[in-house]
């Protein structure tokens, strides 16, 4: 498959599947690993889908080789210790503890004669679980009460086996009091905890908030365009140039707001494309994806867009004080030449003139006509002369013409509007009308629109 997007939530990925890319996340990963090295406490805070779990799982992946890393997922768990005792693997702990206990066999009463009699050392340890005050023996036997205090005692002993790294995910407000107790237990181990922004914002206990703030890693608003590019490249390298413009447009318009929604969008679009194209037919897939980022016929689409704008202007006329919307293009004489202006409407006895111009290559086919539009000061309509209040162009390409306001709408949004998204069109037209709110006298004389 061209794009390898996991079909499960990040919290169920194995650590082998964790992909963490982007300069922002690499920076935060290195910061967190430094915190681990210094045996400090850190909190990863962010909205759902911003990569909190991914960051923790990546830390687990990196640290588990040389450390005893414990990852606790508190989603739908009422207590920390419940998850701890579920995740504590006795087999792995016994292997580590056994290596230390074999160094002190004699002190534990395991003599040459016992070995000669066929008593295995492992069996002997189980018989003496409660006879010696030894941290390795307690770990081997897991001789702890299955509650919060028992968890603290177990952690205190386990850190003698290896450097201990505690990663706690999906913390909720009802976990905070126990988290505070855990931090203050004097374990001297690194604790990295992740919580949603909503939970963090509700922390009222000053002592808890101070501990959380000590090394807070904020993921909200951290994602940059370079991060997004690397994320797309990581999952869809061969289609980055085709998918990235779509993702950036959706990100800028707040239609996708986090890493999870980026991956979800790509997966959904690839599912649609695969109904038309074979899985590895790159050319077919690109052709389908480009339908989102290019127009089939820019000039024809511009005329259709103008029609939709006129229809909407008529529907919102009362809200914006529009007294007249011309039902088609308006022919106007300027500098001895005749041009057709696509949009013509009247507000408060002042005229607004505009054109819709789309392009797939960044060029404007009617650039000279737009320059003429910028010169129009008065328009005669129905035997009355109106002052021109504003001149504008709606386009999907970057342009700058004196005395003309440019309302730039990305191609992806243009396609959505052409497909019937009236609400999106209304949002964009409101940006246009915002240009006229309480202008100064100087603005009235010089405003381009």
Description:
There is one protein chain. The chain is α/β, with parallel strands linked by helices and 449 residues long. It folds into three domains: 14-88 and 142-218, Rossmann fold (3-Layer(aba) Sandwich); 225-289, no CATH class; 298-446, 3-Layer(aba) Sandwich (Trna Endonuclease, Chain: A, domain 1). It has helices spanning 23-37, 52-63, 80-87, 90-101, 112-116, 121-127, 135-141, 148-158, 176-183, 197-201, 206-213, 225-235, 240-252, 259-274, 282-289, 298-315, 317-320, 367-373, 411-418, 422-434, 441-446, and strands at 41-46, 68-73, 164-169, 191-196, 216-218, 322-325, 330-334, 337-341, 343-347, 350-357, 378-381, 384-395, 405-408. The strands form three sheets. Strands 6, 9, 10, 11, 12 and 13 form a six-stranded mixed beta sheet that branches. A five-stranded parallel beta sheet has the order 2-3-4-1-5, sandwiched between helices. Helix 7 (135-141) packs across helix 8 (148-158). Residues 38-223 form the AAA+ ATPase domain. This is AAA+ ATPase domain-containing protein. InterPro entries: AAA+_ATPase, P-loop_NTPase.
């Amino acid at each position: 498959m061209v794009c390898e997007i996991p079909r499960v939530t990040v919290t169920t990925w194995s650590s082998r599947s964790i992909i963490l890319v982007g300069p922002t996340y690499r920076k935060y990963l290195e910061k967190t690993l430094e915190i681990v090295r210094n045996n400090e406490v850190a909190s990863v805070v962010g909205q759902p889908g911003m990569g909190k779990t991914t960051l923790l799982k990546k830390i687990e992946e990196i640290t588990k080789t040389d450390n005893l890393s414990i990852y606790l997922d508190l989603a739908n768990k009422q207590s920390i210790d419940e998850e701890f005792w579920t995740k504590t693997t006795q087999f792995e702990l016994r292997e580590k503890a056994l290596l230390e206990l074999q160094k002190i066999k004699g002190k534990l009463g395991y003599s040459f004669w016992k070995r000669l009699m066929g008593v295995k050392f492992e069996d002997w340890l189980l018989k003496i679980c409660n006879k010696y005050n030894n941290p390795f023996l307690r770990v081997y036997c897991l001789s702890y009460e299955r509650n919060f205090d028992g968890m603290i005692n177990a952690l205190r002993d386990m850190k003698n086996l290896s450097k201990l790294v505690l990663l706690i995910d999906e913390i909720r407000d009802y976990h905070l009091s126990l988290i505070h107790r855990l931090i203050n237990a004097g374990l001297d181990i690194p604790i990295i905890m992740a919580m949603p922004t909503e939970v963090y914002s509700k922390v009222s206990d000053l002592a808890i908030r101070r501990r959380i703030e000590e090394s807070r890693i904020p993921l909200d608003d951290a994602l940059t365009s370079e991060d997004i590019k690397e994320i797309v490249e990581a999952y869809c390298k061969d289609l980055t140039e085709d998918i990235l413009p779509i993702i950036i447009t959706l990100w800028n318009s707040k239609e996708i707001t986090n890493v999870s929604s980026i991956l979800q969008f790509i997966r959904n679009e690839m599912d649609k494309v695969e109904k038309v194209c074979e899985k590895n037919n790159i050319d077919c897939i690109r052709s389908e994806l480009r339908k989102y980022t290019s127009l089939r016929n820019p000039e024809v689409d511009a005329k259709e867009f103008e029609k939709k704008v006129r229809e909407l202007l008529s529907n919102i006329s009362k809200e914006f004080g529009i007294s007249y919307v011309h039902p088609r293009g308006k022919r106007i004489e300027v500098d001895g030449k005749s041009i057709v202006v696509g949009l013509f409407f009247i507000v408060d006895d002042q005229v607004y003139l505009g054109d819709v111009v789309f392009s797939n290559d960044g060029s404007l086919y009617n650039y000279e006509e737009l320059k003429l539009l910028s010169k129009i000061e008065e328009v005669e309509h129905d035997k009355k002369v109106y002052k021109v209040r504003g001149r504008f162009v709606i386009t999907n390409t970057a342009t700058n013409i004196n005395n003309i306001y440019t309302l730039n709408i990305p191609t992806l949004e243009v396609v959505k509007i052409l497909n019937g998204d009236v609400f999106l069109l209304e949002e964009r037209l409101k940006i246009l009308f915002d240009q006229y709110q309480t202008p100064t006298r100087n603005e009235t004389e010089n405003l381009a629109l």
